[in-house]
Structure formats: C-alpha cells, structure tokens
Design brief:
This protein is of the alpha/beta class. The protein folds into 2 domains: 97 residues, Beta-Lactamase (2-Layer Sandwich); 180 residues, P-loop containing nucleotide triphosphate hydrolases (Rossmann fold), CATH 3.40.50. It is 32% helix and 32% strand. The protein contains 9 helices and 13 strands. The N and C termini lie far apart (57 Å).
Length: 291
C-alpha cells in the first residue's frame, strides 16, 4: 500500500490513528480501532524506508535525522495529519494521527453546558496557570481552542505560543515556535509580554522548557492556559514537579486543572470533564482567589 491508499483506507474506515511498527526484518502497518490495534499490511524494510522519506518531506522534517524524535504535520485532500517519529531498536516507529481542524466552540465540545460555564468563569476571574488535562485523543486540543475563542468573544486579547499551531482560529494572535531560526519558547514568552495580552496560551506543557516558560509568564500576573498529559490535579502537579517546578511555585500558581475524557458509548463518543482547583487557594488568599 502506498501512502495515498493508506490515508484513503483510514478515511473510509473512520480510523484516526495509523501505526507503523518496525520488526527485525519487516514493518507492520496497523490501524487503531475500538478493539485495539489491527494489522493491515506488511512492508519490507526497503519499502518502508521510501515511505517514511516521503512522509518526512510532506511533514517538513529532516529526512536524514533518524536518531532523534521528530514531529510534524501535513495535509491530504481535506484532512490534516500529525506525524510522530521515534527511533526504536529495529528502526523508526511512526504514528500518523488524523487531526480535525474544523473549529468547535467550547459549548459544542459535548461537555455539559454548566461545566463549560464554570470553566470559563474560573479562567476569566482567576489568575495563575490553568491546564486542560487528559490522555492522548481525549479532546484536550478541541477544548483548548474552544476556550480561547470564547475568551476572544468576551473582548479579551489572547496570544498563543505553539509548536506546531494545530488549528487556526480567527481573533487569536498565534505564534509558531521555530527553534531552527532561533524563535524559542523563551524568546516567544518575552516578546508576548510586550504585546499587552490579557491571556497567554502555550499549546502544550511537555517538558522542562515549556513548564518553566508557563511559570515565568504566570509570575508576571498574566493568566496562562495550556494542555498537559495528566488525569487529575494531583497528577498534573506531580508532572510539573518532574519538569523542575518547585512546590511553593505550584502552590502559588497552579490554579486550575480541567480533566477531560471521551467515553465510547452507543452512538459514538461522549465527553466528560472534571474541574479541580488549587486546594491551597483559600489558605493563601484568605477567601480571595488570585483576583
């Protein structure tokens, strides 16, 4: 199967995740479905090498880099795809994920209306770091952009720092990180602070650099919104500690964690959310929360 056949087949079968699993002398093409991973095709190592070279070109990645992880994105017909390369013992593992760029407002994500209203009010009234949390494929990005658009509709200026920009939303000021040209998270945050934003959004807190930059922006008094792979306030707290943030910094500035999950039910997926706030908030502010 060539790349076009793979993408067409995934569209026909409504598959969102395409996996390439390297083995010692071949590579397996698999589709992730509700029941798990299903093997679709088997490639020789030579054919797989040609395929990933094409995908790297489409994703604007370094075709000669085979040791370090790489992430990119490309368009095919009316669909957008994200790609992730990771070196394994038998070669480069590849995942292609379909990404829905169609925009949804916060109140159209499938979450309950009262919960969305609580989340929006919380972020509108409280400073600090606000995180949309969840596992991979649970709708964090959709909620993230929907929330930011609601803030712009309320006449707030929202500036985003992303790598990559995954959805283009009217009224947001969106900035794309480009480390090769020297536009790093650090430079982006310093520049953003001079743009007089009401909110600063960082696409994802995924490492020490992004965690430190979120903290630095929040210390200036700007509310910061981001996403993180976590499943509760406590797990997000511990993950940020692993990224090097100190307990007193998190106690002071980690304001909100909104955990989201998609559950397969009859008729499709249903979104559930849980809003958790800083347990030390009342003690710190004696009843007034970071206003």
């Amino acid at each position: 199967m060539n790349l076009e056949e793979i993408l067409d087949s995934s569209k026909d079968r409504q598959i969102s995740d395409i996996h390439f699993l390297p083995k010692k002398d071949h590579v397996l093409l698999c589709f992730r479905e509700e029941g798990g991973i299903e093997v679709i095709h088997r490639y020789s190592l030579e054919m797989y090498a040609l395929l990933i070279q094409k995908i790297k070109v489409l994703g604007r990645l370094n075709i000669s880099e085979k040791r370090l992880p790489q992430d990119g994105a490309f368009e095919y017909q009316d669909q957008s795809f994200r790609v992730s390369f990771l070196k394994s013992v038998y070669g480069e593992s590849l995942v292609i994920r379909k990404f829905d760029r169609s925009f949804r407002s916060l109140f159209a994500t499938g979450l309950s209306i009262p919960l969305c209203e609580r989340l929006l009010k919380r972020i509108e009234c409280v400073r600090g770091i606000h995180l949309i949390a969840g596992e991979t494929g649970m709708g964090k990005t959709t909620t993230f952009y929907g929330l930011l658009k609601e803030l712009t509709d309320l006449k707030y200026k929202v500036l985003t720092i992303e790598d990559p920009v995954e959805n283009y939303v009217e009224d947001l000021v969106q900035c794309q990180i480009n480390s090769f040209s020297g536009f790093t998270y650090e430079r982006a945050v310093f520049a953003a602070l001079r743009q007089d934003p009401d909110y600063i959004a960082i696409g994802e807190i995924r490492n020490e650099e992004t965690a430190r930059m979120a903290l630095r922006a929040a210390l200036t008094g700007h509310p910061v919104i981001s996403t993180i792979h976590a499943f509760s306030y406590k797990s997000a707290y511990e993950k940020l500690k692993e990224f090097g943030l100190q307990k007193d910094e998190l106690t002071m500035l980690l304001s909100t964690v909104f955990y989201q999950k998609l559950v397969f039910e009859r008729g499709g997926k249903k979104a559930y959310g849980k809003l958790e706030t800083n347990p030390e908030e009342t003690k710190l502010q004696q009843g007034a929360v970071f206003l």
